[in-house]
Amino acid sequence: MAITAIPAHAETPRDTLVMAFTIDDIISLDPAEMFEFTALEYAGNTYDRLIGYDPEDVSKIFGVAAESWTISDDGKTFTFKMRPGVTFASGNPMTAEDAAFSLQRAVILDKSPAFILTQFGFTAGNVKDKVKATDDMTLVIETDQAYAPTFVLYCLTAGVSSIVDKALVMEHAQGDDLGNEWLKSNYAGVGPFKLRQWKANESLTLDRNDDYWGGAPAMKRVIIRHIVEPATQQLLLEKGDIDIARNLGPDQLETLRNNPDTYIQDGVKGAVYYLGLNQKNEALSKPQVRQALKYLVDYKGMEATVVKDLMKVHQAFLPKGFLGALESTPFTLDVAKAKELLAAAGYPDGFKVTMDTRSTSPIMEMAQAIQATFAQAGVELEIIPGDGSQTLTKYRARNHDIYIGRWGPDYQDPHTNADTFARNPDNADDAKSKPLAWRNAWDIPEMTTMADAAVLERDPAKRAELYLEIQKIHQATSPFVIMFQQTEVAGIRAGTKGFVIGPSFDDNHYKGVTKQ
Amino acid sequence: MTNQTDHLSKAGTGFKGLSLPAPLRATVNVATSVALTFLGLLLVTFIIGRVVPIDPVLAIVGDHAQEHVMERVREELGLNRPLYEQFGIYVWNVLRGDLGVSVLTSNPVLEDIKRVFPATLELASVATLFGVLFGVPMGVLAGVYQGRWPDQVIRVVGLLGYSIPVFWIGLMGLLLFYAKLDWVPGPGRLDVFYDGLVDPVTGVLLIDSAMAGEWEIFWNAASHVVLPAAILGYFSLAYISRMTRSFMLEQLSQEYITTARVKGVSEWRVIWVHALGNVWVPLVTVIALSYANLLEGSVLTEIVFAWPGLGYYLTQSLLKADMNAVLGATMVVGAVFIGINILSDVLYKLLDPRAR
């Protein structure tokens, strides 16, 4: 075959951004349903919400689809003035009715991310009264309690709060699905980019929205290619067949850092990595054992090796960058201290325990490092490898001993992690709500009350104090060995600038990207 | 080499009692056994899919979903019904031509398969072509020069083909031919600029672009397929050359070969016409089976070369317990095996006068 006759394209077109990214987690492109990292990133680039925040300083909240807003004195009514003259990609004008419909729709459909909105007391029955357009340009939202205002506002910046084009969506509605079936693989919004095509497990292509109210982006098209293998991503980047590689490991990053044609960009993400110690296991339920295991992880050593560039040591449930995040890291590898604690708990020679582990990188490498340090104090850790869904099934049924996990916040407010790490309203097997504390069978009525009070504290400084206090107790006593906070890393061609890696998955923006 | 359709026709002997003309009876028997094979295949896959400790609901709702959402989705998928009922509903839908919707891609499974299967078909066909073009002559040479250096060299080449992990050789191939030498383009089926320019008629890009007269796209697709196909084909080469060698040895020791030689037939003719002519018969089955294996077993090549094919689709679906997709893809693989077996039977009969 005359293969040598074909010139290999040395670079991608100047007005097209080509990116390698594993996108097989996308199962729906409907903002009311999507809850996967890649889908949320897609929505962050294609759907405006009422408000947004500065990825550099998340305390700066500004209007996007809404121009301004006011909060009533009792703290329960939020009134938004819509930005005039905005049109959807379809050409339909955007009004307050679209914004109201979008939020109502998410609550009524009640898909996975709906709880972000329903926690304000909205139900399928009352949401049309609680969230409504009083005229074309005014949207009024009424919450059931006076929450911390930023709690409400941050939830309105989440993917589930994206504004959809009511007329277009309802044109495609089947039965009472509010257009969900259609929107799973189609687009109805306004944003810097719009969907061109999604081929599952293959590619996702976006086109520039030329009429975007905030100014059209420089890139005419963004092509995201589903490339699983990090080494393949590296080769494509080095050859210039892609502009950005998104799933690189420490080995690839090291090589690319020394390549003058590429550079490495990173951003601190909200996700934390932790060990969950099931309190149904007798040994793990002993306070000294929990304490001992926290001294048996080589945080610094792992940071310098298996998770180099990908994670930073972090030991509290609120990630750095969140209001009230506790940044102290009291635990280091201290085998002598751990042995003492184990002896006090009645395990002078250690014990045997299993850990359910996703067989992916770098989780598996982390598990092996932990296995080695646990062994130094006689704790024999058996790693049970499995695929993501498999280990998660077991974890959610609380059938594990130890689970090595990753948790990403659902929205930018501290309640998102407090709600799961530090609240457990009902520890019964058939509980209605099953947060991470429940999954590890950690019964904490007092801490639950503290977390409930924190979400209602309207003074930001006092609120931050409350979260610091919860985290200090949590850090010392909880069955969560919180180890690291994620750093998201991308390898980028030297001529490609302006890619933003924000703190949340929907803050990875392409609109500022330029190519030379 | 066992012939699957032989088993199939034996399995269907229950119809012998009916007074049907022989050819029709044979067809009915084959059809019945094919149907039973499919049903068995579905049943086994279905049971495996339901007993693996993976909750299919999780793939849809994600880790953060609340309990009531999980329960509702479980009901929507019918997973709260008894197993036999779920299986009955599934088979009933399949009979009506509905393979269900994949929960991972939100597409009807049939549509997904129409997209991923041609990609694999393209890769496996070129790979098999490669395996036959190189494997058969190598096997003949090895047989003729048994024990001498060409045989040794070919044995080592074949052994490497068996034992080198495809993942590694794939990456090394990319590093050498793509990154260093620039002979072939990078992973994927086409350069991104050509993507979506030809209407998918068969889904096999080489055929679609040729039919549309888009030769630039044809050559681009060909340049993309050559490296992964060569690497995948290396494995069938190893297998085909080993089998050809042993078939050749068997033929070369036959009396008719000695007779031909005594009669003064040229050595070239003895080997390539007389002996190889008889080797083709069993070789067809070997090639067919190796082809069928490539169709379902190319997942690692697909991953390294970002090739959106059936192997990757099946693996992903299996790991997330996306049962409609798993069952659909399994049926395709099953159909391919049965089809290729029937085809090799037909070829067998055409090539071997004794089988007519």
Characterise this structure.
Helices cover 29% and strands 23% of the residues of chain A. Chain A has 18 helices and 19 strands. In chain A, helix 10 packs antiparallel against helix 12 (335-344). With 356 residues, chain B is mainly α. Helices cover 73% and strands 0% of the residues of chain B. Chain B contains 15 helices and no strands. Classes of the chains: A alpha+beta (516), B mainly alpha (356). The interface between A and B is large, with 57 and 59 residues.
Show unreliable segments of chain A.
1-9
SS class of chain A: alpha+beta
Instruction: Report the β-strand fraction of chain B as a percent range.
Output: under 5%
Summed up, the helix count of chain A is: 18
**Topology order of chain B in helix (H) and strand (E) letters:** HHHHHHHHHHHHHHH
Of all protein chain pairs, which has the greatest interface, and how many residues does each chain bring to it? A-B, 57 and 59 residues
Contiguous low-pLDDT stretches of chain B (5 residues minimum) are 1-16
Q: How does the SSE layout of this entry go?
A:
The complex is a heterodimer of chains A (516) and B (356).
Chain A: E1 16-21, H1 37-46, E2 51-54, E3 57-63, E4 66-71, E5 77-82, H2 96-109, H3 115-118, H4 127-130, E6 131-135, E7 138-142, H5 149-155, H6 166-171, H7 180-183, E8 193-199, E9 203-208, E10 221-226, H8 230-239, E11 244-245, H9 250-257, E12 262-277, H10 287-294, H11 299-304, E13 311-313, H12 335-344, E14 352-358, H13 363-375, E15 380-386, H14 388-396, E16 402-407, H15 415-421, H16 436-439, H17 445-454, H18 460-477, E17 480-493, E18 496-497, E19 514-515
Parallel strand pairs in A: 1-10, 1-11, 14-15, 14-16
Antiparallel strand pairs in A: 2-3, 4-5, 5-7, 6-7, 8-9, 9-10, 11-17, 12-16, 12-17, 13-17, 18-19
Chain B: H1 4-11, H2 22-51, H3 56-61, H4 67-76, H5 83-95, H6 109-144, H7 149-163, H8 166-180, H9 205-211, H10 215-252, H11 255-262, H12 267-296, H13 299-304, H14 310-319, H15 323-351
Helix pairs in contact in B: 1-2, 2-15, 6-7, 6-10, 6-12, 6-15, 7-10, 8-10, 9-10, 10-12, 12-15, 14-15
